[in-house]
Amino acid sequence: MNVRRRSSAAALAAIAVIGAAAAPAVAADPSPSSSPSRTAPSGLYGTTDPRYDGVWRQSLALLAQDTAGVVPSSTAVKWLTDQQCANGAFAPFRADPAADCDAKTPIDTNNTAAAVQALWAVGGHGDVVESALGWLKSVQNEDGGWGYSPGTPSDANSTSVVVGALTATETDPEKVVKDGKSPYDALLTFALPCAEDKGAGAFAFQPDKDGKLLPNADATAAGVLGALGEGLVAEAADKADAASCTDADKPTREGAAANAAAYLTATLAKDSHLVSALGGSADQPDYGNTADAVVALAAQGGADKAAGPLAWLEKNAAKWAAESGPAAYAQLIFAAHATGTDPRDFGGTDLVEKLNATGPAPQGVAAKDTASANADEKSDEKDDDSPFGVWWFVGVCLVFGIGIGFLLSNRNKKQQP
What we know:
Elements: E1 2-8, E2 15-17, E3 21-22, H1 54-67, E4 70-71, H2 74-82, H3 109-122, H4 126-138, H5 156-168, H6 183-188, H7 217-228, H8 253-268, E5 274-276, E6 284-286, H9 287-301, H10 307-324, H11 326-339, H12 351-356, E7 364-365, H13 371-381, E8 392-394, E9 397-399, E10 408-416
């Protein structure tokens, strides 16, 4: 796996470079507490008990910062890399990263795939990413998909988040096969046909105990992105006509994504938000899944398709995010990015500032602090190979005869498998 970087330098006539480059050191993190508690380990975003979501929320936080043009804290990145097991997998949280993982360590595909997307984005961790991808491929099911834990039946959400990890690292999911089946083959088995009276075009999480597919809004949003080969961070597609569910003898993955987008559009039509219900309680607005639906709709049919739920989130989601923490702010940043909305003024809330405040202070802000500039910068990185993965400050340069110095800088951003 090659690690690539983007180089830039001002050039003037009659200048000789006499300085030598040196990489800034990354400070070591203090070891996390030996037992989980409400006091978050050093480097972790959020203050709640990390046992169930530490790696997930850390990955989303780092990925959202990178998406918004923020250079994450090296301490926060190190916290995430320290969570990896020797076999490449990640668990939600390991209280003692120095201890070896064993059969009781609850490694899973979702946390591993999210960590891959985050560490690929921030750059400089090709060995960690390569090892994680190798583990994900090793636990692929015979139907081409993935379940949450190794050996469990495939589901739409897990398969989709792994597809996101593959495509983020420029690995073609169609070439990641098990018994001749790709992840896309698995995803299509969860798509409800348009002939269904309820849930036409939706994705099911997985078949129920009787083998029946039941519509699931969360799985549908994930399924749209997975079928399109998109990750947690997605760009808006070209504007498309209003979608309707269209049956086909063998729908393409793009067709399945369009059908699922039509289901989401119809579901959101009444209140512009999705709902969730806890046992014995009334339906409640589901802010997180609504944010995911915004990303899915924009990725499938353009930002206009997501205008209604986006406006609802801008008006209503600030309190939810403040109560829920870094992953919630990250989801809203992803929704803003997919629709071309400013995450620093999301219904009057600076999502980036709020996210940054939940963990270690970031190293800084990229010179081009916009989503489009960040995307352009990453595109340029593909043209220049380097074995290094951090910001570089290059020595002092003298102008012949007048002794003027200037600074050269370059930044590593991407890795190539």
